[in-house]
Amino acid sequence: MSMELSAKTPTPASARWYVGATKVQWQAFWSAYLGWALDIMDLLLFAMLLSHISTDLGMDRSTAGMIASASLVATAFGGLVFGFLADRIGRTRSMVLSILCYSVGTLLCGFSQSVAQLLLFRIVVGLGVGGEWSAGAALITETWPAQHRGKVMAWVQSAFASGYALAAIVAAVLLPVIGWRGAFFFGIAPALLAFWIRRHTPEPEIWKQQTHRLSLMETLRMLCGEHGRSTAVCFAFTAAAMCGYWGLFTWIPTWLATPVANGGPGLDLVKSTTWIVVMQVGAALGFISFGYVADSLGRKVAFVTYFVLSALAVPVYTMISTPTMLLLFGPVVAFFGTGFYSGFAPTFAELFPTNVRATAQGFIYNAGRAVSALAPAAVGLLASSYGLSGALAFTAGFFLLAGLIVLIFLPETKGAKLQ
């Protein structure tokens, strides 16, 4: 069954996506926005607290990188499981379960007494984070009209920057007072959001009108068979792009705090937190701008432009040593090196039908994130030979690879009707 999503929307083809938006659309918007902001906060608290955790639990950089990577691998399984649940029992119900999962996982991290326990609890966090994106992406792309899909997802995806900045602020405020364990305890806060979402956010009409819910095997056959090419292409460029992102941004907080004698800028906690928050302003603008570029010029042009400029900006950033220049250029790196995330959900939604959309979106996005788990570990290993600055510059190659895959293989889907 196919239907034009905008048929149920009173919004005309206004360039302003928010004009005429319905109550249901705004409920979906805020549910996804807050869910994403808080799941990124919980996921990245680990990076903000890394040096203190390492001291207490006796971790070296390779072990820390391995734990960060394990969280990302877990998101792939979370994306598949909760994405399938979103196709079976509903986008909203699946989102609620995933938020509870990552909230409880973050709380448990604060009770870790060993590296093994911390690893286990970070895996729980990863499962929930992967699942929340799956459900939220389907909810947004199915609720808002086609002509604004890219822009709305861009604004929602900008919650990523809000969550990153919030993680830095939580760490800076709570760490000196109650330590890294107490900062993790704050991660239970998103659980309150789950109850609000369950009560106030309805399921999309296009999902409710599906007459047949596929089994897991039927879903996998569709993803690997009829839609196998789309699955492969989307997975390839997503994985490459995320290797660039996670390899770079997992280690930036540590790099900013690395002493000058060891090849870093040597910023203290207050400065490094400020610099990270300022970078996320650039990231938020990058998320938002990508949606407007993608809706105007097309998905391919937007992706290639942001990937290429990311590849150029990263090596420049790692060669800067003065705090003022880091403050000024950091938002530029984040603008291009993060903004492309806004394009994933609309592009995937336009390539897959409703009965497998959440599973496809969640699996591709989070399987790509799982592969990108190799990047933080690789940067940690390379840092021992080339220094952290040199290792971070290495991530530019991943952005170039992502741009090449999009340019050659990705079909243009701008304005496509959801099926």
Describe this entry's structure for a reader.
The protein is an all-alpha fold and 419 residues long. The protein has 18 helices and no strands.
Overview features:
mainly alpha, 419 residues
Secondary structure layout plus pairing:
Layout: H1 23-57, H2 61-89, H3 91-109, H4 115-143, H5 149-157, H6 159-185, H7 190-200, H8 205-208, H9 216-224, H10 228-249, H11 252-257, H12 269-297, H13 299-318, H14 323-339, H15 344-351, H16 354-371, H17 374-393, H18 396-409
Helix pairs in contact: 1-2, 1-3, 1-4, 1-5, 1-6, 1-7, 2-3, 2-4, 2-16, 2-17, 3-4, 3-7, 4-16, 5-12, 6-12, 10-16, 10-17, 10-18, 12-13, 12-14, 13-14, 13-17, 13-18, 15-16
Helix/strand-derived category reads mainly alpha
The sequence of SSEs as H and E is HHHHHHHHHHHHHHHHHH
- Helical fraction equals over 70%
Number of helices: 18
The gyration radius over C-alpha positions equals 20 Å
Rounded mean pLDDT score: 86
Tell me about the largest β-sheet.
Answer: none
Count every beta strand, where a strand is a DSSP E run of 2 or more residues. Answer: 0
Strand content: under 5%
**How does the overall form come out from the CA principal axes?**
globular
- From the N-terminal CA to the C-terminal CA, the straight-line distance is 7 Å
Summed up:
The chain has 419 residues and is mainly alpha-helical. It has helices at 23-57, 61-89, 91-109, 115-143, 149-157, 159-185, 190-200, 205-208, 216-224, 228-249, 252-257, 269-297, 299-318, 323-339, 344-351, 354-371, 374-393, 396-409. Mean pLDDT is 86; it is low at 1-13.
